[in-house]
Amino acid sequence: MEEGLLRYNLLQKLTYLGVVFVLFPLIILSGLAMSPAITSAVPALVEGFGGQQSARTMHFFLASLLVLFVVVHIAMVCRAGFTRRMRGMITGDLAARKTGR
Amino acid sequence: MSGSVSRRKLIQAGLAAAAGACGLGVAARIADRYGLIPPDSGGVYGMGETLTYASQRLLLSRHPLAREFSRSEISTVCPINGDPPEDETYRRQLAGGFADWRLTVDGLVDRPTSLSLGELKSYPSSSQITNQVCEEGWSFIAEWTGVPLSYVLDLAGVRPEAKYVVFFPFDENWDSLDMPDARHPQTLLAYGMNGQELSADHGAPLRVRVARQLGYKSVKYLSRVTVTDTLKDIGKGLGSISPEIGYSWYAGI
To answer: How far is Cα A60 from Cα A54, in angstroms, rounded to an integer?
Structure first.
């Protein structure tokens, strides 16, 4: 097994960090900020985004960024060996045996 | 025995599955009793609808108020969707300034009644400057004036077993609210908008105004209000026309 497969480079690490800790929380919060019911209970949600329409605009761009991430992510999975990566993703064992038991 | 499942594991898994199914069954009964199951809970999307409705009903159990704005924030453009009803009776009443229009209030009430526009306007009025949000994404802020729905409900005397208030307009867009939203202080039967009479485009002579749900729940062109304990016999039994055409019954979103 090549070492490179087991390691992410800096750009990959930053991207995953951004997606998990910035994009995902923001898209959930901006989605909730568009809810007339939720915002009645938590007004800070919509105020934090500068109003319901601003939240909607941000929600759209956040969603676009997530789609872009998915496209690049899958392209990279394909380049790095689709079958092996899928197997690693499901079994948690990246160095999965080639021939099975 | 490598690769095969032992009898003990199979029995354990079976018991766990049975316990899980029982647990879900009990949870569903309890949820229904506390009004956490929406009328459109069936089908593929029903589980999502139920999850949304139940969690929001619990989150909003203290009945918080929707944000109110100042007069200077009222929108200059107030978009509308669709035209006033083609219905002949409606057209005649619109032409006659709704002089002989009456709102029927019936169903599970002690005193079924019908109210003229003048009578509705003689009751204690309430005004609010709130945001109206459409499913399509646009929104506008407007001032709505009307009589709180809860006032009219009390006037008619709602029976304790009642669970929903159903709104029938002059067109096919009927809808319903559960008691928490029907009794919410910001839920109005509105006859005025931005200091003027409600225009035909915005639902004259009387429309519902529900501040904490999407615009399509604020039924226009009201003709009849019915109190009921079940929505099963109305339309396809999904609580409003919205789920019949792919929208949610509960639109707090």
So the answer is: 10
pLDDT band at A101 (very low <50, low <70, confident <90, very high): very low
Q: Does this complex have an ipTM over 0.90?
A: no
3-state secondary structure of B109: strand
Contacts of B180 (CB under 8 A, 6+ apart): B35, B57, B60, B63
Q: Which domains does chain B have, with CATH numbers?
A: 65-244 (3.90.420.10)
CA dihedral B26, B32, B35, B41 (to 10 degrees): 120
Cis status, amide bond into B124, omega within 30 of 0:
no
For position B37, what pLDDT does the model report? 93
**Per-residue pLDDT reduced to its tens digit, B54-85:** 999 999 998 999 999 999 999 999 999 889 99
CA pair distance B188, B145, nearest whole angstrom: 8
pLDDT top residue among B162 and B32? B162
As a whole number, the mean pLDDT across chain A is 87
Residues of B in contact with A36 (CB under 8 A): 66, 131, 133, 211-214, 252-253
Look at residue A100 and tell me if it is in a domain.
Answer: no
Pairing of strands B207-209, B188-193: antiparallel
Look at residues B198, B199, B201, B182 and name the one whose alpha carbon lies nearest to residue B190.
B198
- Contact list in A for residue B65 (CB cut-off 8 A) is 40
- The continuous run of DSSP H or E covering B190 comes out as strand B188-193
Q: pLDDT at residue B19 above 50?
A: yes
User: Is residue A22 included in any domain, yes or no?
Assistant: yes
| Sign of the Cα pseudo-torsion (B117, B122, B128, B129, in order) | positive
For chain A, how many structural domains are there in total?
A: 1
- Domain encompassing residue A20: 8-91
Give the pLDDT of residue B6: 83
Q: CB-based contacts of A63: which residues, under 8 Å, 6+ apart?
A: A27
CB contact under 8 A, A36 and B59: no
